[in-house]
Amino acid sequence: MKDTSAPKLSVVIPTRKGSRRLGDLLVSILRQQTPPPFEVLVVANSPKTAVERLMTGLDPRFRCFSAGQPGVNHARSLGLREAKGEIVLFLDEDCFLEEPFILRRHFDLHKRHPDAIGVGGRYALKRRSTTVEQAYHWIGDHWLSASKTDRERTMNLIGGNASFKADPLRASYRFNDSIAFDETEADLNMRLFLSGRELILSERLGVEHRLDMSAFSLLKKGFLQGRSLEKRERDGLVPPWRFQGARQTLEGNMAERGLAPGRAMKFFFNLYDLAFRAGRAHAKRSPDAPVTIPRIVLGLAREWVDRVRKLPRSPFFREMDHALRFSAARPHALAMNDGGRESHQRSSRAKSEFTPSPPGAPSAPRLLRE
Fold first, then answer.
1. What is the pLDDT of residues 162-191, one digit of tens each?
2. Where are the domains of the chain?
3. 88 falls in which pLDDT band (50, 70, 90)?
4. What's the CATH number of domain 1-121+157-211, 3.90.550.10, 3.50.50.60, 2.30.30.30, 3.90.1300.10?
5. What is the pLDDT of residue 309?
6. How many CB atoms lie within 10 A of CB 358?
7. How does residue 253 score in pLDDT terms, banded at 50, 70 and 90?
8. 85 in the Ramachandran plot: left (φ > 0), alpha (ψ -120 to 50) or beta?
9. Which residue has the higher pLDDT, 332 or 14?
10. Among 212, 233, 227, which Cα is nearest to 299's?
């Protein structure tokens, strides 16, 4: 039986085009058991015609809005303004509520933690996921684990699975609409944390994340997230020193769950790290420049060159350089194989071809790096 009373929980879902995944998420919301009175607000960044067509006949508690401009934070801000519930739950359109009590648990955790402004959970991998999708999932999961300050409290919540008390969020914080995509929630999380507001991370609020990611998407996300972190550091939105100590490694986080990354996943970890560092470097050089595909490619190339320059040479080529320097300094050593005239002639030719390097001259070129 549908509960038509005033909503206590508002579910806000930003969307771009109203994909099939959005339809699956809406159906999974309708299958939730014993939820509080709720409403669903789908906010489209594009014209909402396709989204309205998708929602036709689903449920009268579902409403659709158009943000009028791109950017997930614009959509979240509009949803927050229009929400009628005392708790606002933000979900991404590529999520799916596999567990039947997610809405109830979000609402109950806010009642259990009246001083906390935000409550959230983790993402769970979809059943069939590619290696690149698995790599990005574990990168995000590690970021969330590294953000915890004690057993329940955290500095960060995932933007696609987090709920907030509506009134204090509207009154004092809100989303930063200037951040369009990637790390959109990190700015809000850090402002909340630095102002002393509590954020709760619960292991009982996992939602399935139906990623659809290519290797280039991974590079783009790493670049944008690195750029976003550099900007937050510039604006002073970083945690205090006591929370910036050594953290558990990504592979250590996986090992705790009985997993070990293979070579392919390690490759994508390194690819993301390369893009992340390139994004930070781009923000330092051109903090206000728009991000375009050519800039991403150029940033990746610069970071790759810088990384290659720092790699040590292999022992084989270090030995070869040493042999070349030795031969240049002592060319007569090449003529010690036999005592005949031919050997002496070889030595004479060697003297003309190999001249000692003057002091301070550069060594032989580095032909190859590991």
1. 999 999 999 888 888 777 666 678 889 999
2. 1-121+157-211, 131-147+214-310, 313-370
3. very high
4. 3.90.550.10
5. 67
6. 6
7. confident
8. beta
9. 14
10. 227
In this structure, which amino acid lies at residue 158? I
CA proximity to 160, closest of 130, 138, 181, 129: 181
Amino acid in the structure at residue 297: V
- The more confidently predicted of residues 97 and 146 is 97
